[in-house]
Amino acid sequence: METDQLQEMSAQELHDRSVRYAVRHGDFGFLWELLKVIPAAEAASGHDGETANDLTRVSALLSDAMASGEGELGEALRPFYIDYLSKHPDA
């Protein structure tokens, strides 16, 4: 899929496609990177309180990863998903 096509997708679609591909292909590197960028994305989307909690609780990060395509957080993570999907055109 071309980057232009990815840009037209919603944050939720980008999230779902990225996470589904990573899970299906055992790409734990991507999933780990997602967990690492969620706190910064939450801070960028105005949810500073979530950032402190996430850094101390892995279970919160895992939960966030599964819902990280929604709302402002999904929008903040759009570039991350687009970069990943453009490197994996079969996703």
Automatic annotation (TrEMBL):
This is Uncharacterized protein.
